[in-house]
Amino acid sequence: MESQVQPKLIIHGGAGSSLHGKGGLEAVRRSLHTVIEEVYSLLLCGVTASEAVVHGCQMLEDNPRFNAGTGSVLQSDGQIRMSASLMDGASGRFSGVINISRVKNPIELAQFLQNSPDRVLSDFGSAELAREMQIPSYNALTDLRLQEWIQERQDNFKSAMAGVVAEPELVETSNAGRGTIGVVALDAYGRLAAGTSTGGKGFERIGRVSDSAMPAGNYATSNAGVSCTGIGEDIIDECLAPRIVVRVTDGMSLKEAMQRSFGEAHQNKRDLGAIALDASGAIAWGKTSEILLAAYHDGEKVGDTLEWTDNELIGYC
Question: What is the Cα–Cα distance from 38 to 111, expressed in whole angstroms?
Fold first, then answer.
């Protein structure tokens, strides 16, 4: 297949209310831009949108700064349970794993399940799949996340969730962040894909299921792709990712679809964010939270949303 379009890429590392000052901001910027540059170079070399998404998610999962893979938050019982999903817009297939433990990259299992007759597996099934794939056991725990959990246990788990970004100063438990990572890509052949991965809210009830392993939080078709972040329950209640994609499919521009969807989310007092691409190469992002940790490549340059704190609900290019 001959290449037809300029690849586009957008990623996120969560949404929330604090970056621990300028030091945190610059560190997150470096992390996000490194992923953008490496994954975009792959798209220029002709990898598919799904392959690019998986590679980007792996890089973000491997960065202990973000709440996915290494650096995932702990649930109320002190255990790490991660969820991830992948949707290939060209095939229209969604796949994912829910509450999996002791693997390095949950997105790899979601990728494997793209070609399975059973495409979404919960904890026990995910663990069995990891054994079948001979994926080595991996401990995703970091000292910072352990300290965060110990501190929260001492406070009798008063926080609704853990901090979105792991930084040396353990603040951000009262004004919490919402940690997820995500990648949306448009490849040189005009195909779209979206992937999302998370360690969860942190301190949640055992068995709680994140939006990250549902179409509500991760959705792509041949028309548009969206990855969400924020409070999972709010994203599920809005059915945010499919809402945006369906509006694009029905004829709205991506900008219009994002404006309408985030206007509704704001009116409903939701706490969330999202990144999006459409088949024409339009790039958009939105938030009802204070900050959105996102970066993108528009075909010419790298940009990000880290200092986007105005009252606008969406941005686009």
Answer: 19
* Phi–psi pair at 210, nearest 5 degrees: -80, 155
Q: Residue 11 and residue 32: Cα distance in Å, rounded?
A: 8
Phi first, then psi: give them for residue 273, nearest 5 degrees: -150, 165
CA separation (Å) from 159 to 83, 201, 227? Answer: 21, 10, 25
Q: What is d(CA 228, CA 194) in angstroms, rounded to the nearest whole number?
A: 10
Type of residue numbered 176: A
Beta-bridged to residue 83, according to DSSP, are 198
Q: What letter represents residue 149's amino acid?
A: W
Which pTM value belongs to this model?
A: 0.94
**How far apart are the C-alpha atoms of 123 and 99, rounded to whole Å?**
5
CATH T-level assignment (fold) for domain 8-316: Glutamine Phosphoribosylpyrophosphate, subunit 1, domain 1 (3.60.20)
Q: Rounded CA gap, 242 and 231, in Å?
A: 17
DSSP state of 205: P
Measured N-to-C along each axis, helices 240-249 and 254-267 cross at an angle, to the nearest 10 degrees, of 140
Q: Where are the alpha helices (DSSP H) in 211-316?
A: 232-238, 240-249, 254-267
In DSSP terms, which residues pair with 304 in a beta bridge? 295
- Partners of residue 225 on adjacent β-strands: 220, 277
The domain segmentation of the chain, as residue ranges, is 8-316
Residue 273's DSSP bridge partners are 229, 287
* Residue 276 per-residue DSSP state: E
Q: How far is it, in rounded angstroms, from Cα 6 to Cα 133? A: 35
Over the chain (317 residues), the average pLDDT of each successive run of 10 is 84 83 80 98 98 98 96 94 98 98 98 98 97 97 92 76 56 51 98 98 93 98 98 97 98 98 98 97 96 96 89 91
**Alpha helix positions (H), 141-227:** 143-154
Catalytic residues: 180
Q: Which of 170, 174, 316 is nearest to 254 (CA)?
A: 316
